[in-house]
Amino acid sequence: MQVLKFGGTSVASAENIERVLAIVQQASTLGPVVLVVSALGGTTDALIGAGQAAAAGNESFRATLRQLEARHLTAAEALLPQAAQQADIQPWLTAQFTELALLADGIFALGELSPRTLDRLMSYGELLSSRLVAAAFAARGTAAAWADSRQLIRTNSRFGMAQVDEATTEALVTAFQLQTPASLWVAPGFIAADTEGHTTTLGRGGSDYTAAILAAALGAAKLEIWTDVSGMLTADPRLVRSARPIARISYEEAMELSHFGAKVLYAPTVQPVRQAGIPMWIKNTFAPHDYGTLVEVAPPPSPGAVRGLSSIGSLALLNLEGGGMVGVPGFAARLFAALARARINVVLITQSSSEHSICVGVSEGDVAAAQRVVDEEFAGEIATGRLDPLRPETGLAIVALVGENMRNHPGISGRLFGALGHNGVNIRAIAQGASERNISTVIRAADVRKAINVLHEEFFEATYKQVNLFVLGPGNVGGKLLGQLHQQQPYLRDKLGLDLRVVAIANSRHCLVSDEGGLDLASWPAELNEAPRLSLDEFTDLIISKNLRNSIFVDVTANPAAAGQYAPLLAKSVAVVACNKVAASSAYASYRHLKQLARDFNTKYLFETNVGAALPVIGTLGDLTRSGDVVRRMQAVLSGTLNFVFNNYDGSRPFAEVVAQAQAEGYTEPDPRLDLNGSDVARKILILAREAGQALEMSDVANESFLPASCLEGDVTAFYEQLAVHEPHFRALYDAAAGKGKRLKFVAQYADGKASVGLQQIAPGHDLYELRGKDNVVLFYTDRYPEQPLVVKGAGAGAEVTASGVFADIIRAARL
Ligand SMILES: NC(=O)C1=CN([C@@H]2O[C@H](COP(=O)(O)OP(=O)(O)OC[C@H]3O[C@@H](n4cnc5c(N)ncnc54)[C@H](O)[C@@H]3O)[C@@H](O)[C@H]2O)C=CC1
Ligand SMILES: N[C@@H](CC=O)C(=O)O
C-alpha cells in the first residue's frame, strides 16, 4: 500500500488534475494506492472569506459561492467530457452547493461563525475535490473507492486544530480496508470527525497530515507528498534564489525545517510516519521526474553538516526580568502556565545562567494577550519591584540552521555568528537544544533576507559569494575601476568564487541603481547620464536600506562630504574602500573612530591607495607593526605628480606645461594645486605616521612649499597663469640643483614622532635619486631594518594603477 497526497496547486485545474491522474496511474502499477487530495487551490480561503462575510452580514458570500460552484462545474466538464460521465457528478456538485448555500444562509441569519461551523464550511473544499477526482478515475475506467476521511479519522472536538485519536483511527481504517475491495481509494484531506460525528479539521495544511495518518494506520510502504516544488529546499526560495532541493533528510530534520517556515510540509505530518518508520517522499507534480526529497530514518550526513535553513517572521520576544527570580524555583513554570492558559504558543525559550531574566519568543499577534496575562500573574512581584513588567519586543524573526550532523562539527555556531556579524546582523537571542539539531537566532525581521542569504552562502555555496558594491565617483580612477571590474567579473567568479555586483554608481549629478543582479558594466556611462541625482545622504540611505549582504562602499572621489558618510556606513557593517584621502588625514580622533567602528562592527575600512596608489605601502607598514617591529624613520617620495614634474622639467618647456601634462595623464588630484603645494604629500606622510602608531595631526606636519604664494590665490586657471608668471622661479630651482649634479625631489620625512615635507636637492647615489617618471618610493627604517631600509618602490600615481589598488582593497574587504 502506498499513500499519495496532492496539494491545492496540484488539483487547482482540470489540466493539473490530469497530471495527478497520470502520476497515480503510474504508481498503481506498483501496488494499491490511497490518494489524498486537498481542495482546488484557493478554495479553502474562499470558503473562509464567504463564511466571514456571511457572519458580518455581507451578502458578497453568495457571489463567492456561485464562483466556486462554476469553477467546480467547469473542472467537471473538462475532466468528464461525455454527458453520461457527468450524469452523477454534476447533480451531486449542485446538491453540495445547495447545502453550502443553506449553511452560509444560516451563518448570515445568525451573524455568527463558530469554529465548529467554520470546520463544516471548510470541509466542502476537500469533499468536492476528492469526489471530482474519484469521478475522473471512474470515467477513465479505473475503479476508485471514495473514502470519507470523516469516517476514518477520529479526533477530539478542538475545531480548527483537532487532535487525532490514533487507536480509534487505526481501527476505523483497518475496518474500512477489510470492506473495500478497490485497490485505489480517493480520500479528502484536512477533514475528520469527532466522536459526535461533527466535522473537524486538522489545521491549515492538514491534508499532508491526513495522508500521514492514513499511511501510519495502513502500515503503508511509503508516503508521497506531491506539491509544486521539487522537494524540501535548503532555504525558502522566495528569499534565497540559489536554494536547492535537499535529496535526503531525516524525519527530525524535516520536522525542524517544516516547523520553521518550510511551507512545503505541514509540520505534524512527520510524526505518524516517523513513528511507523514509513519513508516519505516530497515530489513535484509539475516535474515528476525530479528526485525530490526522501525523508527517512538515517540519511547520509550532509557534507557541510547543515541540512537546511529556516525562517519564521512576525515574532516577538517577551523578556521577563528582575532580581526577584534569582534562585527562586517556579518562576518559569508560572510564566509558561500563564501563557498556556491564554493559549499562547511559545516558539523559543532562552534563560541566562544568572537566572536574572527569561526570554521567550511568541507570535507577534499574541503580544497584547501575553503582556496582560503575565503582568497579572506576577502582579505581586511587579508591585514590590522584584520583577519588571513584561517587556515585549516586536518586529523580529527567527533564522535557524537545521542539521542532524551539526553536533559532530565544532565551529558551526562560530561560523553562523561570524557570517551574521560581518554583515551587521544583530542577534537578539539564541537557542540551541542539547540535540544540536537546530541553532535558532532571533534577529530583526528587516534583516531576514540578508541573513538567510549570508548563511546560505556560508553553508551551502562553496561556489559563489555575492558581494555588492556601491561606487561613488566614476571619474578617472573610478572609470578605470569599473572597467577592471567588468573585465575581471568572470575570473572572480571562476577562480575566487566572488560574484561581484555593482549595485549603484553615483557622481555629483546622477545615480544609477540596479534592480536585481547588478548593473551592466558595459553600458553604465550612457545609463548614468540618464539617471536622477541623489545627494550623498540619500546615497548612504540607499546603501543602508538595500541592506544587502557583503556591501562595500567604494569612495573614488576626492570629496570631504563623501568621507563624512563612512561612519554611518561602517556602523551598519558596510565595508568602506577609499582612495579618497580626506578621512584618513582628517582629525586624528576621527581617523581612530573610523578604524574602531570597522573593528566594532566586524567590517573593513581600507585605504591602501591613499599612499603610493597601488604600491603595498600601508599593507607593508601594517605587517611590520603587527609583527612587533617599530618604525623609527621613514623617508619617501610620495607624489607621482611632483616626481613626474621634476623628472621632466629642465627649462626647455615651461614648468606650467609640464604640470598640465601631469594632470592630463591623470597623476594629479582633481585639484592639482593640492599636489603642487605639498598638501597631498603631507596627507600621505601623516597617514603613514598614524599607521606607524603616532597620533599626529595635519598641523604637526611641516610643509615647506616651493610655490610662490600668488600661485594659490585664485582658482585653477589662475594657478596655471601664475605658474607661467613664475617660470624664472622654477627655472632657478632647477638650475641650482642641476648645477651641482643633483635632482629635485619633493621629499616626505618622518622621524622621532615628527613629520615634514619639502623640496630637496638629491645627490647621485642617494636612494631617492634614481626615481623615474611618476614613481614613488618609501624607505622604512625600523628596529629590524635599522640601516638598510625596507624599500617599497614603483609607479605611485595614475588612474589605471590606482584603480587596481582600489580593486585589491575590494577583494580584501570581500573576503574579510
Ligand atoms: N590619480 C591618482 O593617481 C590617484 C588618485 N587618488 C585619489 O583618487 C580620487 C579620485 O581621483 P580622480 O579619479 O582623479 O578624480 P576625478 O575628478 O576624475 O573623479 C572624481 C569623481 O568624483 C565625483 N564626485 C565628486 N564629488 C562628488 C559628490 N559629492 N558626490 C558624488 N560624486 C562626486 C565626480 O563627479 C567624479 O566623477 C582622489 O581622491 C585622489 O586623491 C589616489 C591615489 C592615486
Ligand atoms: N596626486 C597624487 C595621486 C596619488 O595619490 C600624486 O600625484 O601622487
UniProtKB/TrEMBL annotation:
This is Bifunctional aspartate kinase/homoserine dehydrogenase I. Its cofactor is a metal cation. It comes from the Bacteria. The gene is thrA. GO terms for molecular function: aspartate kinase activity; ATP binding; homoserine dehydrogenase activity; metal ion binding; NADP binding. It holds the Pfam family AA_kinase. Pathway: Amino-acid biosynthesis; L-methionine biosynthesis via de novo pathway; L-homoserine from L-aspartate: step 3/3; Amino-acid biosynthesis; L-lysine biosynthesis via DAP pathway; (S)-tetrahydrodipicolinate from L-aspartate: step 1/4; Amino-acid biosynthesis; L-threonine biosynthesis; L-threonine from L-aspartate: step 1/5; Amino-acid biosynthesis; L-threonine biosynthesis; L-threonine from L-aspartate: step 3/5. GO terms for biological process: homoserine biosynthetic process; lysine biosynthetic process via diaminopimelate; methionine biosynthetic process; threonine biosynthetic process. Homotetramer. It comes from Hymenobacter polaris.
